[in-house]
Amino acid sequence: MAELIVHQEKIQDLAHIADLCPFGAIEVNANRVSISPACRMCKLCIKKGPPGAFELVDSRRVSIDKSAWRGVAVYIDQTEGEIHPVSLELVGKACELAGKIGQPVYAVVAGHRLAALTEELRHYGIDTITVYDHPQLEHFRIEPYTAVLEDFINRCKPSTVLVGGTAIGRSLAPRVAARFRTGLTADCTFLDMQPNTDLDQIRPAFGGNIMAHIRTPRHRPQFATVRYKIFSAPQRRAEPDGDVIAVTPSDAMLASSIETLSSHRKEPVKNIEDADVLVVAGQGIQRRENLDLLQQLADRLGGMVGGTRPVIEAGWLEPRRQIGLSGRTVKPKLIITCGVSGSIQFVAGMSGAEKIIAINIDPDASIFKIAHTAMIGDVCEIIPELLDTLAKGDKTHV
Amino acid sequence: MRILVCIKQVPGTTQVDIDEKTGVLKRDGVESKINPYDLYAIETALRLKAHWPEATTLALTMGPPQAEQSLREALMMGIDEVALISDRAFAGSDVLATAYTLSQAIQAIGDTGIIICGQQTTDGDTAQVGPEIAEFLNIPHATNISAIPECQTRAVTVQVDLPTTEETIRLPLPCLLSVNKGIHTPRLPSFKRKKETREVAVRRMTLADFPDTDPDHYGLNGSPTNVVRIFPPEHHVTRETWEGSAGELAGRLCTYLRDSKFLV
Question: Do B128 and A173 touch (CB under 8 A)?
Answer without folding.
Answer: yes
